[in-house]
Amino acid sequence: MSLRSFEHALARLQKVLKLLDEAEKASFAGKVREYAEWLSSYEKNGICFNPDGAAFQAFLTHVKEAEDLERRGAYNDALFAGYEALRVLSSPKLRAARCVALADLPSAPDDFLGDIPGIPGSGGVASGP
């Protein structure tokens, strides 16, 4: 699962948020911002986002359901479920277990590489065991 794939899914979630009225959107805007900041910290450190495949698919499913539904209550339910999937993916324990250097991902865009772990003087963050 590449950082690019995750960013695409996050963009889809942001698109869904635009379908909600301002009062409802406000309750999710902070959550999307929080997750975007977390993702940005990985870009800056040259570390990829490599989530658990099943949890990531659950997130994509919830976003798709939110796009397809017409009732605002159902949108909220689907968005909340999607956010919960994101929250699980962002747990420190899961991040430590699942994140590797971007250089290890063939699909990672060059502009996300930053410092490369294991290269002297690069300042990169080494992957865990």
Percent helix: 55-70%
What's the count of strands? Answer: 0
| Most strands sheet | none
Look at the structure and give the mean pLDDT.
61
The domain count comes to 1
What percent of residues are in strands? under 5%
Structure, explained:
With 129 residues, the chain is mostly helical. The chain has one domain (3-112). It has 5 helices and no strands. It has helices spanning 3-18, 22-44, 53-68, 72-89, 92-98. α1 runs parallel beside α3 (53-68), α2 (22-44) packs parallel to α4 and α3 (53-68) runs antiparallel to α4. The longest helix has 23 residues, at 22-44. The two termini are 19 Å apart. Residues 101-129 have low confidence and may be disordered.
Can you lay out the helices and strands and say which pair or pack?
Elements: H1 3-18, H2 22-44, H3 53-68, H4 72-89, H5 92-98
Helix pairs in contact: 1-2, 1-3, 2-4, 3-4
Outline of the structure:
This protein is an all-alpha fold and 129 residues long. It contains 5 helices and no strands. α1 runs antiparallel to α2 (22-44), α1 runs parallel beside α3 and α3 (53-68) runs antiparallel to α4.
